[in-house]
Each structure stands twice: as C-alpha cells, then as structure tokens.
Amino acid sequence: MHDLPALWASQEWRDDLQGWLFPALEAAGRRVTGPLVQERIRFWATVLHVETDAGRVWVKENAPSQAFEARLVAAVDRLAPGTVAPVVAVEEGRGWLATADLGLPMWHDEEPPPVDDWVAVVAHYTRAQRHLTDHEDELLATGVPRFPGRPDDVVAWVEDLLAELDALPAADPRRLTPEEEAGVRDGLGRLHAAADVLAGSDLPDGLQHNDLHLANAFRRPGGAAYIDLGDAVWAHPLTTLRIPLWIMRNRFSLGADDPDVQRLVDAALTPWTDLADREALVALLPAADRLSCLHRAESWRRLQADVPPSCVAEHFARSVPEWLVDATAPDPYASAVAR
Question: Residue 86 domain-assigned?
Fold first, then answer.
C-alpha cells in the first residue's frame, strides 16, 4: 500500500516514465515535439499527454490492482481494432499505456449527449463485446478479473467482503452501519436468485466494461471507441448495460418503459438474439442490473486497498458499502438514484 498520488507527483516517477515513453514513441515512428504534461492525478490513476509530430499521445498509469488495463487494451486493440483508442506503446511491467488522441469524448460538458448517441455507443460496444467472447482465454490472460457467476459463489463473495469491511477500524467510513449491514444480509437471497437467473441463460460471459458511459467514448467512423477499461471484469455480458441505461434514465428523467429506454435496450440485446429471443433477454435485465452493482463494489474495493485511507477522496470513501446496499436493495435503481 503506497501513497500513489504522492508517487505520481514525484520527479523520480516522472523521470522513469519519460525515460521509457520518449524512446517508445520514437520506436513507434513518432517524434516528440512538446513537454510531458500531467493532466490529472487521482488515487486510482494518473493521466499525462505529450505532443508528437503525429498528434497528441495520452499516457496512463493505474493503481496496481488495475494495472492490467494496459495489457487488456493492447489485446482488445489487436483483436477488435477500432474498439479502443489506438495503442501507441505499452510497458506491461509497469502498466504504462500510451494511446493516440481521439479528440473530445462524446460527453465533455454538463449537457448530456442526446439519446441517439447513447444508443449508438451501446450498440457498438455490445457488438464488439460479442466478438470478444471468442477470445476469452487471451483476454483473461491480461489479468482482467473474472467475477463469480455461480449463485453460491456470488453470495460467498459478498459475505467475504462484509467480513473484510467489518474488520476495519470503527471510524473507517467503509464500514457499513448496522442498518446497512442488516439490509445487505436480508438481500443476499435476492442476489442468489439474480445470479441463478443469469447462470441459467445461454449467453457466454464477456468483457464487462464496468464504466461504460459517453465520457469514456469517442465518436469514430462507423461507431465509437472506448477508454478506461481499468474497472473491467469478465462477467455476464448484459451487466455492461446497467451504467449507460441508468445514467440515461436519470439524466433524462425516463421511466423504464419509455420508448427511448427501449431503443437502448434493443441496441444492447441485438447482438445476442441468435442465442435467445428478445423476451428472454429482457427478462435477464433486472438480474443483470443487480449483479452489476457488485462489479462496481469490486472495482472500488480493489482501488481503495491500493492506497492508505488518507488518499481516498471523501466523495468516494463510501463507494463500496453504497454499492453493496444498492445490489441487495429491493429496487437497485431506486436505491442508487436516491443517493
């Protein structure tokens, strides 16, 4: 466990990165034309950019638990070109990832993009996701974690996490309140039932982006390209739909049955309709919604374990218990929106 923001702000770390990056860019046929600029530091990652004669290049280092992103993005770029920002260079040992600039993301200000953009982004991602299911072994070899799928294993995962949180000091904000823990334990049966529904479907597990929204998507000819795969897990594919669906519903105040919501659902389900009819796929969505909340809890759990508690911004300190509460609530969407 290290103070990663302090490390990433240090001259020693910056010199190490630059010592790899500039020669790697030259080897890739790019001549550096400007200084290395650190855009932002968060406790989970830092992002920098540098200008070259072939355009801007973005560079990222993740916290150790998500350092697999560099290998994962390189594999996706090779297996499904155009799905991610083009890889310029990768240093697998350090998890350094350099990618080509794609301009502004589709969501870059306070105004949410129109529904058509949400539908297009989901449609393109799920087509790529279906293609990538044929490369499970290669993608899992990058280190992207497989999330439990069997009902008993899902419940055991939650119980292990509850024990982990209960062992934290009394003042640690990651601890659940007694009321929250009682609610989570009361909802374990809901999780078991949801996992049973997904496990009984005919859909293969796939790459769950786990943070699929339009601030992580860029308009490209014929579709979109995606960044920020560090939160990814290998899981039931329909769990990927929850983040874009919930964000769109919340931002546009749409009901679950709104025609625009159904357009997005249809876009997400179309790549799987050779394995099940639409009605059967739609029936899986409540279970996928519920289980995907655990995927968010997992990504926050591993990131917070990488750094001392003092490094975690107050806004994110309760992310793990909040997602556990949502996962086990009678209505996960209503629980999350209420926050």
Answer: yes
Residue 106, in any domain of the structure? no
203 pLDDT more than 90: yes
Distant-in-sequence, close-in-space partners of 82: CB < 8 Å, separation ≥ 6: 220, 222, 223, 225
With a cut of 80, say whether residue 336 has pLDDT above it: yes
In a domain, 108, yes or no: no
| Domain final position from 100, 135, 161 | 100
Once rounded to an integer, what is the mean pLDDT over residues 226-235? 98
- Helix and strand numbers (H, E) in the chain are 14, 9
* pLDDT recorded at residue 155: 98
Same domain assignment for residues 95 and 183: no
With tokens 């260079």, the residue in question is 89
Retrieve residue 164's tokens: 């982990």
CB 165 within 8 Å of CB 176: yes
Do 126 and 73 fall within a single domain? Answer: no
Q: State yes or no: pLDDT of 331 exceeds 90.
A: yes
The total domain count for the chain is 2
The answer on 94 and 120 residing in a single domain is no
Strands 57-62 and 37-41: unpaired
Nearest CA-CA partner of 196 in 240, 151, 155? 151
Express each pLDDT in 165-192 by its tens digit: 999 999 999 999 999 999 999 999 999 9
- Do the beta carbons of residue 177 and residue 211 sit within 8 Å? no
**Domain span holding position 316:** 115-338
Neighbours of 318 (CB within 10 A): 18
Q: pLDDT averaged over the chain?
A: 96
Buried b (16+ CB within 10 A) or exposed e, 107-126: beeeebbebebbbbbbbbbb
Domain match, 79 and 131 both = no
Q: Model-level pTM?
A: 0.96
